[in-house]
Amino acid sequence: MGYRYSAEKNSSNIFQDYLVDKLGDEFEHFGVYQDYCEPMSKLSLGITELLSISLGVQISHFREFFDKNESIMRLNYYPSCQKPYLTLGTWPHCDPTSLTILHQDQVGGLQVFFDNEWRSISPNLKVFVVKIGETFKPLSNMRYKSCLHCAVVNRHTIRKS
Ligand SMILES: O=C(O)CCC(=O)C(=O)O
Ligand SMILES: [Fe+2]
């Protein structure tokens, strides 16, 4: 499931409104998604400052470029699977975004293709995985590349990210 987030004031309840409309009034106080997206949006703008420094451009360069940006929050749910070797939770891909901030639960399943092999990214509830997406590649004059990644499933446990 994914939904669009914008820091603009008049769209601040967009997801909650959607839930109430589709699922009823009991979802009226379900503002947690908005509460999550706002700090994530701030965090991503902070990360753009680090990227600016690393690329030797003005620190505010990307912050200004992405100001009033929109983002998408995706909620991934991977059921357990009796034959995990026959499938993948998410097929190998590069995110089309500029930046992705990923939080995975304690189950594990994210893999990144690096040095010609798939490597598992250890789950840690206390950390975010920050991925460069396809859109940032040209913005950095190809100095940053997006990473090919996928998510595997397992036999015993559901996974959320
Ligand atoms: O679930 C994951 O760890 C990866 C999800 C993913 O790649 C995506 O949503 O783009
Ligand atoms: Fe992805």
From TrEMBL:
Pfam families: 2OG-FeII_Oxy. PROSITE patterns: FE2OG_OXY. It comes from the Eukaryota. Gene3D superfamilies: B-lactam Antibiotic, Isopenicillin N Synthase, Chain. InterPro entries: IPNS-like_FE2OG_OXY (IPR044861), IPNS-like_sf (IPR027443), Iron_ascorbate_oxido_reductase (IPR050231), Oxoglu/Fe-dep_dioxygenase_dom (IPR005123). This is Gibberellin 20 oxidase 2. It comes from Hibiscus trionum. Residues 68-161 form the Fe2OG dioxygenase domain.
